[in-house]
Amino acid sequence: MDIGKLFTHAWGLFRKDIGPLIVTTIVAALATGIPAVILMGGLFVSLGDNVTISEDGTVTGLSGFDWGAFALAYIVVFLIVFLVATPFYGSMVSILVRRVREGRVAEYGDMFAGFRQYGQVVSTYFLVGLIVGLLLATIIGIPFGVYFGVAWVYALVIVVDRRVGFGEAISGSRALVKATGWWMTLLALFVAFIVFVIIGAILSVIPVIGSIVAGLLYPLGFAYVVAMYFQATGEVQLVENAVAGLPPAAAGTGSYGGPPAGGPYAPPAPPAGAAYASPEAPPAAPPAPEQSAEGAPGAGRQEWAAAADPLAGQPPVAPPLAPAAGTPPSPPVPPAPPAPTPAAATGPMEAAAQPGVDAGSGKLVHHCSQCGAVIEGSSEFCQVCAHQVSGGERPAADEAPGPDAPADDEAPSA
Q: Mind spelling out the 3-state secondary structure of the chain?
């Protein structure tokens, strides 16, 4: 346990929420002091002029004093102070613990936070004080009183932090003290006691104001115990983050195996260079092959396409329909007849003239659709292949005009 760091952490926590802590101390002092002054003052005033105090300090006239009423008033004052002040102590501890656990900035309404756990806070504070006080009241019980006073030093903090009762609080405190060492815990408390006594003695030199300032530093003692508690639980980083103003989640796992402060456990981060994909995401396709210099796909293009979508080249297959129960199987469907192939044209062929524009003359001419020759004028036959433009058959070889036959445009001689 680092005692020097304890003072640093205690002062840092006290300074972070100094306003609500001081206001809580003032309200607790007024809530307990005013009833005590009224009760005890009224009791002494009732004595009247019967009581006199001589110069040597001798008190006379107490023969008619009602000691029973005095004892009853004292008990009432003690109960008022205890039952009212103790929840405010729990409020101070709650402000400090929540600053460490949650990084929460305290508000002035948090002075009543201890009343939310009134039964647990008051019962634990009362039983610890009663047991330790009774042991210290006897000579033989002093060692036991010192031992349990140190072993149960974290009881109130555990009640506020873990929201447990007296039994779990003292057992948890004893376990933490045992883990860090009982003598080490005693040394930390003793050093703090000496420092606070010295501070109080220095402030008491200043009349009235010094006592008030010393009382306002009362929450600093709770901050010291809270700093001890988080060192004992191994959560020093939480306190350092709170003092530095950092979020408590940066410290990692909370105490008692709980999640980190500020939220539940987050999923582990993916390894460096890898994406964190959900289980439902399809597998990523392999990278496309590089293009060659001429723009043609590189080698392995077909393999890449097949790996990216294996079912792309396969036709969808419909599942067979199962016949209903008791239904005879249907006969097989006969195959579709082959499509008829068009027969070759054997009839008369029509060589339709194909109009076109002559590139040389620019006139509209007709071309034979059979051989492509130019059909001059209004002739009905192609002069090259003898196809009839308007229809008809090609003349047979024996009917074809011979080489000595006159041309169509030559008139026969008379």
A: CCHHHHHHHHHHHHHHCHHHHHHHHHHHHHHHHHHHHHHHHHHHHCCHHHCEECCCCCEECCCCCCHHHHHHHHHHHHHHHHHHHHHHHHHHHHHHHHHHHHCCCCCHHHHHHHHHHHHHHHHHHHHHHHHHHHHHCCCCCHHHHHHHHHHCCCHHHHHHHHCCCHHHHHHHHHHHHHHHCHHHHHHHHHHHHHHHHHHHHHHHCCCCHHHHHHHHCHHHHHHHHHHHHHHHCCCHHHHHHHHHCCCHHHHCCCHHHCCCCCCCCCCCCCCCCCCCCCCCCCCCCCCCCCECCCCCECCCHHHHHHHHCCCCCCCCCCCCCCCCCCCCCCCCCCCCCCCCCCCCCCCCCCCCEEEEECCCCCCEEEEECCCCCEECCCCCECCCCCCECCCCCCCCCCCCCCCCCCCCCCCCCC
